[in-house]
From TrEMBL:
GO terms for cellular component: organelle membrane. Pfam families: Aa_trans (PF01490). It comes from Lupinus albus. The keyword Membrane applies. Keywords: Amino-acid transport, Membrane, Transmembrane, Transmembrane helix, Transport. This is Putative amino acid transporter, transmembrane domain-containing protein. The chain crosses the membrane at residues 57-80, 101-129, 149-173, 185-206, 226-247, 259-283, 315-334, 354-372, 378-401, 413-434.
């Protein structure tokens, strides 16, 4: 079948997206895409950025943020170019066009492992509301600080209420563009966190209580290999590739997606560096791998305790609003993997399939999050494996495969460099973490 005219392209895509669904879904705006992409990036990883500044130093930290953002822009441009040239409208389908069923299966497995792991981590971090125990130390949550230790301020009960009354209504929305308002609120809450952290840093600077900043790495405390352990944090932070296709599919003009991505990258770079700089300035070498833990220490003044509570509460709500956007692509890939029969209606139009899959995923992530108090090592492992594959290796591989004959020599050189960098840095990071 020819694909060089609009009518033929429509004819190919129509059986996968019925007219009624296609008609109602092509109303996404650039602003909505920016909010959803930015929310995907500004997730749990931002709390680890200050700790990377402690290892790298301020200047190398800024350089790495910019470099990872530029590489992300290149790989997304690869994906969008090949999606426009091919017939598939999903990430797995795009890779499947180049590498067949095994390539498509590899993408689905990576998306499921990555998003499921990230969603579990999100719920675990939300225990900032109800406290946890780490390394023999008890960290009281906001609810326990306010009301004391009761059964209804426990992790299991507090997370259950959060899942039922905040997360569940949002994950039941059937179009990703419907999340644009909650994504905008999520970004606003992240900015509130940045403003409060910077204000506290300026106040500490005024009082002469700020910590000395490390401009470059201190090799008396870290070695060269330790620097590579910070890369998965940034890769995870910019790893929104799994949501590129769902967000693009709902735009009025799919070509606007690249501009939405670039605006989102600029927003995320500013937020990452601001949080990294001011967090490191405020806490110095005492900064924890999760900066939120630094805010649960008691303050000597009511104003200090109030600011600490605002920081923790705003970030908890921010993560609760990020949860649905990550759940969207997870649900879509599981459905594509399990219910691959093309005679079935799309997931959004099959209420029984949609509701049962949504409830099952939310229940599973809740139970695992309650059972496991801390999986930060798993989160870092994702940044060195599946997220690297989804963000860099798969997009570069389709450029080298070049099934549509549109890759230039420059594209292929960049793709080779990306694969070498991704595999090399990830291997070193994994080895260093295991050795440590």
């Amino acid at each position: 079948m020819f694909v060089d005219s609009e009518s033929n392209i429509t004819h190919v895509v129509a059986p996968l997206l019925p007219q009624e669904e296609d008609h109602c879904s092509q109303h996404g705006s650039i602003s909505g895409a920016v909010f959803n992409v930015s929310t995907t990036m500004i997730g749990a990883g931002i709390m680890s950025i200050p700790a990377t500044m402690k290892v790298l130093g301020i200047i190398p930290g800024l350089v790495v943020i910019v470099l990872v953002a530029l590489i992300t822009d290149i790989t997304v441009e690869f994906m969008l170019r090949y999606t426009s040239s091919g017939k598939s409208i999903t990430y797995a389908g795009m890779v499947g066009e180049s590498f067949g069923p095994l390539g498509s299966l590899a993408v689905k497995i990576c998306v499921i492992i990555t998003n499921l792991g990230v969603l579990i981590v999100y719920l675990i971090i939300l225990d900032v509301l109800c406290g946890n125990e780490s390394n023999g130390m008890t960290h009281l949550g906001i609810l326990q600080d306010w009301f004391g230790i009761h059964w209804w301020t426990s992790r299991a009960f507090a997370l259950l209420i959060l899942a039922l009354f905040i997360i569940l209504p949002l994950v039941m929305l059937r179009r990703v563009d419907s999340l644009r308002y909650t994504s905008a609120i999520s970004i606003l809450l992240a900015l509130v966190f940045v403003v409060i952290s910077s204000s506290m840093s300026f106040y500490a600077l005024w009082c002469g209580k700020t910590q000395s900043l490390r401009i470059l790495p201190d090799f008396s405390k870290v070695n060269v290999l330790d620097l590579f352990t910070t890369v998965p944090i940034f890769v995870t932070g910019f790893g929104f590739h799994v949501n590129v296709h769902p967000i693009r599919a709902e735009l009025r003009k799919p070509g606007d997606m690249i501009w939405a991505v670039r605006i989102s990258l600029i927003i995320s770079m500013v937020v990452y560096f601001a949080i990294g700089f001011f967090g490191y300035l405020l806490f110095g070498d005492s900064i924890m791998a999760d900066m939120l833990v630094n805010f649960d220490h008691s303050s000597n003044t009511p104003a200090g305790r109030f600011l600490n509570d605002i920081v923790r509460l705003s970030y908890a709500l921010h993560l609760a609003l990020v949860f649905p956007i990550m759940s969207y692509s997870l649900r879509a890939n599981i459905d594509e993997l399990v219910f691959s029969n093309k005679n079935r209606p799309p997931l959004a139009l099959d209420s029984t399939r949609f509701v049962s899959l949504t409830l099952s995923l939310l229940a599973f992530t809740y139970l695992v999050a309650v059972a496991i108090p801390n999986i930060w090592d798993f989160y870092q492992f994702l940044g060195s494996t599946t997220i690297v594959c989804l963000s860099f290796i798969f997009p570069a591989s389709i450029i080298l495969r070049d099934m549509h004959g549109i890759s230039t020599a420059k594209d292929k050189v960049m793709a080779i460099v990306l694969i070498v960098l991704a595999v090399g840095t990830s291997a070193i990071a994994i080895w260093t973490n295991l050795y440590s």
